[in-house]
Amino acid sequence: MEKHIPEYMLSALDAQGIDTSGLIFAIHTDSVDKGGNTDVYIALDSNNLYILRGWEKVVKTAGARRIVAVYEADELEVHPLSELGDLSCELLLSTGRLLSEKDDATNILLVFSLGFLSDIEKLIRVIKNIREGKQPFEEVTVDDELFCPKCGTRYPEPERKLCPKCMDKVSIARRLMGFFAHYRAKVAVIFMTMLAGSLFSILSPYIGTKFYFDEVLTEGGSYYGAVLGVILVMLAVRAIGTGLNTLYSLVLAKTVPWIIQDLKLKIFEAMQRLSVGFYTSKRTGSLMNRINQDATNIYWFFVDGLPYLAVNIFTFTGVIILMCILNLKLALICVTIVPIAILLFKYLWSVFRRFHHKNWVYSSQLNSMVSDSVHGQRVIKAFAREDEEAERFAQVGGKQSMVEIQSFNTGYTAFPLIYLFMFIGQVLVTIIGGNMVLNREITLGTLLTFIAYLSMLYGPLEFMSWVSNWWARCVDSAQRVFEIIDAKPDVTEPENPVILDRIQGNIELKGVTFEYEPAKPVLKGLDLSVKAGQMLGIVGKTGAGKTTMANLIARLYDVTEGTITIDGVDIKQLSLSQLRKSIGIVSQDIYLFIGTIADNIRYARPDASMEDVIRAAKAASAHDFIMALPDAYETRVGAGGQDLSGGEKQRLSIARTILQDPDILILDEATAAMDTETEASIQKALAELQKGRTTIAIAHRLSTLRDADTLAVISDGRVVESGTHKELMQKKGEYFKLYTIQLEGLKIINMDA
Amino acid sequence: METAAKLAVSALSDAIDIGILDLEKAEFYITEGGFTGLRYDGQDYSRITLRRALPVKYPDEYISVADKDNKEIGIIRSLSELRKDQYEIVMAELENRYYCPTVQEVRSVKDKLGYVYLELVLKRDDLLYKKNCAVKDVSKNIRMLDDERLAIFDVDGNRYIIQSLSKLDKKSLKRLEPYLF
User: What's residue A557's pLDDT?
Assistant: First the structure.
């Protein structure tokens, strides 16, 4: 039998007299209900739930991830499963409660901090499975250890399972390099020219000083007196070096944008594949915001960072090797300066990073204030708060100025000090080298070459002291990008999808439960059905779960529990593209893409003829207003295009759906934001659209649903009433209440419901 | 003008009653199931929710009391107006909802690939204990609540608070310094 019990818990549970051999599942949470924080071990066997409270003392030892030296038990509660009620979680602010509900009585079993919610939810699921006679771990994934198995660091986000300490930066780098695979030849040219360019840069001082002084200007040198010739060689070396640098810059400029384009395209394609849930989840919300920033980080690292890293490493190594060849003793003196300089640069950059971060925060605050002020000018003026706003701006601006002053001061004092330190190194080399020249140990040319090479080390040293941070940022960005590329959509096409000849439109929802966020079910075992060609009206208060239900039928999300069938087939088995093409949704949120009105109507069927487009527009009562626009069907809409009213946009979206010709139509508050006159004209268009199709209409204004074959009232995620308008009015229940309230409201403004 | 403003204010207060609870008529109690209940003005609410109107600056003032269906029963103007036993019940419920351990010491702060790892020493009653946590988007999740108090929100949704930065030891302060704004 499958079991999941962390080994370190066994001794503590055993000490309480629990037969650990019979345990099925155990989790480690905390308990905060006594004003503090205790370590709680919750264990489960087939008969009992054990809640052991106490304190865990963790000792780290070399080689082991972590071991528990002592568990000080405080109290043990044993809850026989037969006596426990239905378990559920209630979320508070930064805590949650594990509740047991039986015979109308609810008990709090535990108050835990939010980080343990997913474990508690798993526990609830396992208990439910046991009670239902299923395998305990059916549909339960118990793989998320909270700690990295390699180093014991807690995963920052358990669902990502990425340990920043152990993250395999090499494999990420290799994968990033994979994007260069198509451009192998160009990349080879870039690196070869870059390295050759560096080689010529390194050779330059050698020819310009050592060779020139020792072989040309010194009597007895192999090219004594050949000044012009050597100068020409020097010029040639410099020219070739410059030529190579220009060449690699040109090839680089032509290659990297394409690589980044490939990367962006891959991200975009991956985004199209992902389910709606991906975009609405909190975690990925921030992820999406960062996409542009991440692509830019990667771009700059590859354009600026990587080539210079290669050049600098090559230059650094080349210079050190040449120094060693020229004179080992002097080379060793130079090398001792290197680590000290690296440490100094590193420290300085950490200080600068702090300033930059502060500066960034203040400038974001200032930007927000400017944006606030621009958008809120009417309010600011209406409340005469101009001076206060300026004062607020001045305060943050003042803080930012202070940070900038500190940053400048540090830069202006610390960098010259580091360069002074390096100059002292140079002086040291000059003194020792000078003596060596006098003692004829080395030539003057060698000394001058050394001094020139020493100054060539500054650049690479400074670069290498901060490139690691740059690289870290790039890897972080790459990680996020790969996360999107690798993300698996929640809603997936079945392996062998069922393709129906024609969708009739019989829809049935059985025991449908759904939650966007853990422990917050929106639908709770909802049962509903609608026959082909009929209209079902859904009524309920805001937040009752009406739109969620529509989204589930279109499989924008998958149900948490229960099934939805269309013509008797579970929608999870149906071909996703057939399902989506068969369902038309007209909702309150209308989105028009950038393009012409004709393009937007044609979105569902790009091959539709212009006559069909006009036909759809006429059916949607949109033709007249379109023709009144100067560019008619060629009017550009969407961001930056012609402004259309809410009613006009809605009519375009209806035209789009008419052209789609779906078998099932979902009207989700389609006319909620319209004035009465517009609504009346849109209702006419909708009536046209509904003919012969299964229609699910969600509406706040009950008057629009009077013609529905069946009406269902949803409240708190369940259907509380259903029937025809007449039946429900006679029943005098929830629907009657809602209808009467609306009728009264409309009477006040002299309108009929 | 001043008079007019005053008049307007008094007119508003006459027109709208914010529903301050008459604590003489209120009795908070703990139910068998462990929930907080309230008997008020002849009514028995067996499961109430308490929420702070000003959780940052004045956590003990203007506490909203709502019933099981989230309908507000009334507002406690100040917890100091409660009797000791009543205060303890209300406070325990609030502490459950707004659970936020106090940071005594910051042992280490490491910035790795977009996450800041903190090793904190927290205080519970008189007992100190260690907690490791990870924070993402530091500019949002490590933030000053006022001139003295600093809140830390980790990736799990837990909150920690430093009650007084000026009283924090120098080493801890230095470790946190890059993230303080």
Answer: 87
Closest-CA residue of chain A to B135: A156
**Confidence class of residue B60 from pLDDT cuts 50, 70 and 90?**
very high
Smallest CA–CA distance from B52 into chain A, residue: A93
Distance from CA of A722 to the nearest CA of B (A): 24
Range of the domain at B147: 102-179
Taken as a whole, chain A contains a residue count of 753
Residues with Cβ < 8 Å from B86, sequence gap 6 or more? B23, B26, B27, B28
A14, A52 contact by CB (below 8 A): no
The residues on A that touch B, with CB distances below 8 Å, are 32-33, 35-37, 55, 58, 92-95, 97, 105-108, 111, 113-116, 153-157, 164-165, 167, 286, 353-354, 357-358, 360-362, 364, 472, 475-476, 479
Nearest 10 degrees: Cα torsion A9, A12, A18, A23 = 0
B30 and B68 share a domain?
yes
Q: For residue A106, which residues of chain B lie inside 8 Å, CB to CB?
A: 33, 35, 47
How far from A729 is each of A726, A734, A747, CA to CA, in Å? 5, 9, 18
Residues 6+ apart with CB under 8 A from A37: A30, A31, A113, B101, B122, B124, B129, B131
Chain A residues within an 8 Å CB radius of B95: 35
The candidate with the shortest Cα–Cα distance to A549, out of A520, A528, A569, is A528
More confident residue, B1 or A275: A275
- Work out the pLDDT band at A285, boundaries 50, 70, 90: very low
Q: Which CATH number fits domain A168-327: 3.40.120.10, 1.10.443.10, 3.40.50.1220, 1.20.1560.10?
A: 1.20.1560.10
Averaged confidence pLDDT in chain A: 81
Q: B86 and B58 share a domain?
A: yes
Asked if B114 is an interface residue toward chain A (Cβ–Cβ < 8 A), one would say yes
**Contacts of A612 by beta carbon, 8 Å cutoff, 6+ apart:** A605, A659
Looking at residue B122, its pLDDT comes to: 86
What whole-number distance in Å separates Cα of residue A13 and Cα of residue A685? 68
Q: Which residue has better confidence, A256 or A98?
A: A98
**CATH number, span A7-131:** 2.30.29.30
Which residues are registered as beta bridge partners of B135? B116
- The two structure tokens encoding residue A607: 């091959």
Give the pLDDT confidence of A647-681 residue by residue, as tens digits: 888 888 888 988 888 889 888 887 766 677 777 77
Chain A residues close to B174, C-beta within 8 Å = none
Best residue of B111, B158, B159 to probe chain A, by most A CBs closer than 10 Å: B158
pTM over 0.90: no
Sign of CA dihedral A248, A254, A257, A262: negative
The answer to whether residue B3 is domain-embedded is: no
- What is residue B85's predicted lDDT score, i.e. its pLDDT? 94
CB contact under 8 A, B133 and A154: yes
Q: CA dist B39 to B44, B70, B90, B93, Å? A: 4, 16, 13, 16
Cβ-defined contact of A105 to B178 (cutoff 8 Å) = no
Inter-residue long-range contacts of A293-297, CB under 8 Å, 24+ positions, other chains counted: A293/A477, A294/A477, A294/A478, A294/A480, A294/A481, A295/A260, A295/A263, A295/A264, A295/A267, A295/A477, A295/A481, A297/A473, A297/A474, A297/A476, A297/A477
Under an 8 A CB cutoff, do B99 and A157 touch? no
pLDDT (tens digit per residue) in A367-400: 888 888 888 888 888 888 889 999 999 998 998 8
Q: Order across the sheet with A38-45: list the strands.
A: A23-31, A38-45, A48-59, A67-80
Q: Same structural domain for residues B40 and B19?
A: yes
Tell me, yes or no, whether B70 and B43 share the same domain. Answer: yes
Which residues from A are below 8 Å from B178, CB to CB?
Answer: 353-354, 357
